[in-house]
Amino acid sequence: MTLSSELARIPGHVGLYAKNLDTQKIIAWHESEVFASASLIKVPILAELFRRVEEEGLNLDETLTLHQEDQVPGSGVLKDLTTGTRYPLRDLATLMITVSDNTATNLLIDYLGIEPVNALIRRLGLLHTALERRLERVPVQRRLLNRTTAYDMTRLMELIAQGQVIAVAASSRMVDLLARCQAPQALAPFAREAPYIGSLPPIRVAHKTGSLAQARHDSGIIYTQKGVLVATIMTEGAPESVLQKHLYRIGRALYSQLSR
Fold first, then answer.
1. CA–CA distance, 244 with 91 (Å, rounded to integer)
2. In whole angstroms, what is the distance from residue 87 CA to residue 48 CA?
3. pLDDT > 60? residue 139
4. What local confidence, expressed as pLDDT, does residue 141 receive?
5. How many Å separate Cα 180 from the centre of its chain?
6. Residue 203 pLDDT class (50, 70, 90 cuts)
C-alpha cells in the first residue's frame, strides 16, 4: 500500500507532517488543520516543567499531594491509588508520559498554571497549539478544547531532537521519557531486538500518543541507523479502534517514503 492510497481509505480527517532531519525531505497532508490534541498536549506541559528546572532551579524532588478531587477518569493509575499520598514532580512527569496518566497531568497543570504552559508554547513558535483546560472526560465547548496541529507537534519533536527545547539537558530528559512511552507506536515498523548485548536496536522511537472516543494520534522522533525522522499523524472522525488500524498502516507507509 502506498501512502496516498492509505490516506484515501481512512475514514474521517487526517493531518500529518513528517521530516527526515538528515535529508530535509518533508511529507505533509493537512498539516495545519487543528485537531483536539488529546494527550499530545502533555508534551508541552512536560517542556514547561523542565523549563522551570533549567531556568528557575526547580527541584523535581518537590512533592504534590493527591486529593480525591484530583482523580479523574481516563488513562493512568493515580485515579485508583490512595489519596493523601505525596508524589515527587519527577514521578508525576514520568506517569504523565509513560502511561499517559490524566490525574498526574492535572496535578502538574495546577502546579505549573495554564498560562505559563501557553507562554512556552508561543515561545517555541507553535502557533496553533493551546492548553485550554485540565484533562477531564466530560463534554466541553469547542472553544475550551486543548488543540494542536500535525505541523506544530512535529516541529516540537524536531526541537527536542535537536536539543533546542529550553536546553540540551532538558531536551535529553524529554527524549528519555518519550522513549519509555508504553503505548504502541505507529510511526515506524516494529524492529527486532538488537542482535548483540550492548548494541543498539535498529529503530528506536521516542513518542507520545493521544486518543479520544473519535480520535487517535501519534507524534515522535524515530532514530534509525540511516538517520533521524520526526513525524506526527493525527486522525479524527471515526471510532478510535478503527482509526488505530489505519494509523499503523499510514505510519509504515510514511516511514517507507521518508527513509529512502
1. 28
2. 18
3. no
4. 45
5. 12
6. confident
Q: What is the CATH number of the domain that holds 149?
A: 3.40.710.10
Report the alpha-carbon distance of residue 105 to residue 83 in Å, rounded.
Answer: 16
How far apart CA 180 and CA 207 sit, in angstroms, is: 8
Cβ-contact 61, 46 below 8 angstroms: no
Q: How many domains does the chain have?
A: 1
SS3 236: strand
Cα–Cα distance measured from residue 254 to residue 248, given in angstroms and rounded to the nearest whole number: 10
The strand pairing partners of 219, in sequence order, are 208, 232
Amino acid at 27: I
CA pair distance 79, 101, nearest whole angstrom: 8
Partnered with residue 213 across adjacent β-strands are none
Cα gap 85→61, rounded to integer Å:
14
**Alpha-carbon span 157 to 229, nearest angstrom:** 9
Question: Cβ(238)–Cβ(30) under 8 Å?
Answer: no
- Predicted confidence at residue 44, as pLDDT, reads 98
Q: What is the pLDDT of residue 61?
A: 97
Angle between helices 42-56 and 168-178 (to 10 degrees): 150
CA dihedral sign, ordered 48, 53, 57, 62: positive
Residue 212 domain boundaries: 3-258
Owner of C-alpha cell 485515579: 79
Tell me which DSSP letter residue 40 carries: G
At residue 162, the 3 state secondary structure works out as: coil
> Higher model confidence: residue 142 or residue 215?
215
The percentage of residues in the chain with a pLDDT greater than 70, rounded to a whole number, is 92
Reported residue count of the chain is 260
